[in-house]
Fold:
Amino acid sequence: MNKVFTPRTEFDAIQFRHHLHQYPELSLCERNTASLISKQLQAFGFHPRVGLGGNGVVCTIDSGHPGEITLLRADFDALPITEKSELSYCSQHHGIMHACGHDGHTASLMEVAYKLSLCPPESGKVILLFQPAEETGTGAASMLLDRWLAAQPVDNVFAYHNLPGYPRHAVIVKPETFACASTGVTIELEGKTSHAARPENGINPTTAMLDIIRHLQGMPKRYATAFTLVTVVHASLGEEAFGTAPGAAKILATLRSDKSSVLNTMKQDLCDAVSSISVDEGLTSSVRWQESFNTVVNAPKQCEIVSQQAQQLGLSVVELDEPMRWSEDVAEFLNKWPGALFCIGSGDEHPQLHNPDYDFPDTVIETASALFLSIINHLHFE
Structure:
């Protein structure tokens, strides 16, 4: 996969994206993708840092003059989904595909790298950050464990995500809370099996499982001061054996809120409920949190910069009335430094994210890179 596409004087971002799409890698396994990114940056004449937070890659473009420090971020991990398409560049890794458009995000930022290699900033620094493991909510936080990165006095952070269901090339913004905090939870209940003819000899988790599910489904009403949503995604009880009364159960759910503080309260509420219900039923229990994300909070100043530069490019700007329900771990960077996550429309009828027929629209690469460069021009050339 370690293919460098162009000499320094030429770069085809669409071809680069197609290659990423063809060879996707899951979160925490993106070694070949990271290597390709690093080698492409080297081909542009840069000296990227590698291995940040696992497979992260960072490239600093220093003007050598005083000025602001602006960080642009793209993600590059894929999803465990089997692609259903007849594209010439469809995934060659069975059961893995770029169903969220991270290949397009990375190609957009690589186009920015190419343009800045030809015309570097006149003041300050631009940091191009390529992040792994976004889908699991661990990549950004892992990269910030790197001492060099964490010590950078970044003034501005900008990142984007493509968004089906909106006109192609429209720029979607929202100051303050842009996307929800969320977490997955796995609840396991352990009792004791018995013969189905003598269920009283066992400890059956059925009642506890149903009580916990009811508790989960009732949470949004109990936390109505904020937007909250709980989705039970899976439940299993016992074995498929008519002669055996169940002795174990498992529940998987997703909790989300537009306030991280509310989500944390919900988590404690659930832990207390599971513990109480399990004790009442004579069960042992465990609660495991997975794929946790904080709220994405945009700084008004940086959000306004995105809107202004989009308008200067002649792009339509849509301001959201309420936060996105999905989550994004760029939240970790925005918790540390001021910045903004925005979206670019993929098309009103474009296949939805995380679907097996999804493919990032190539024309959005030019829109995204042009907007990033317009922001850089505004902050580092004026």
User: Anything to note?
Assistant: Residues 33 and 174 are 31 Å apart (CA to CA). The radius of gyration is 23 Å.
